[in-house]
Amino acid sequence: MIFLSASIPNQKDSKYFETADLFAIRDAVRALATVVIPYTNLVWGGHPAITPLIRYVLTTMDINVHDRVTLYLSNFYQQEFIDDNSAFGNVILVDSAETQEDSLKKLREQMFTENKFSAGIFIGGMKGVEDEFELFKHYQPHALLLPVGSTGGASRLIYDSQDSSDEKLLKDYAYMSVFKTLLKDHLNS
Question: In this predicted structure, what is the pLDDT of residue 65?
C-alpha cells in the first residue's frame, strides 16, 4: 500500500510557489498512479487539484482498479467536494472537527492509523504536505519516504531536509522510470 501526499502550491504563498514546477507535479502524480495502481493500493487525501489527475489515469487502464484506490475526504469540506470524487468506489468520509486544522489532523491520523503503508510519496505541495510528511513518519516509521524534490514546493523543502534522499528525486524528471525503480520492492505489498 502506497500513500500519496500532493498538492499544487498557491501563488499567494511564495515559500512554496517560487520553487513549484506545476508541470512536474502533474506529471509525477500521473506517473505514480500509473505505476502503483496496477499492483497495489494507492491512498490519498482528496485534494481537488490531485484527484482529477488520478481519475484520468484510471480511465486509461484496462483493468478493474477500483479496489486499488482509496480516497479520504473530510466532511469539513463537504460543500466543496468535486464531482471527480464520485468516480471512486472506495471513499472514506471522515467526520469534521471544530476547525479546519483539527479536521485535517483527524483525517490524516485516521489515514495513517487505519492503513499499513510500505511507502509515502510527497509531490509539490504546501504546508499540508509538510504536515503529512511529519505525521506519516510518526505513524509509519518503517515506510520508505520519497519526497520528489524536482516538483518543488513543500516536497523540495522536505527533500533538502533529508540526508538520505535519492538524487533521482531531485534531478530525474522521467517519473515513470524513477517510481518503477524506487518502488520495485514496494509494489504488491
Answer: 67
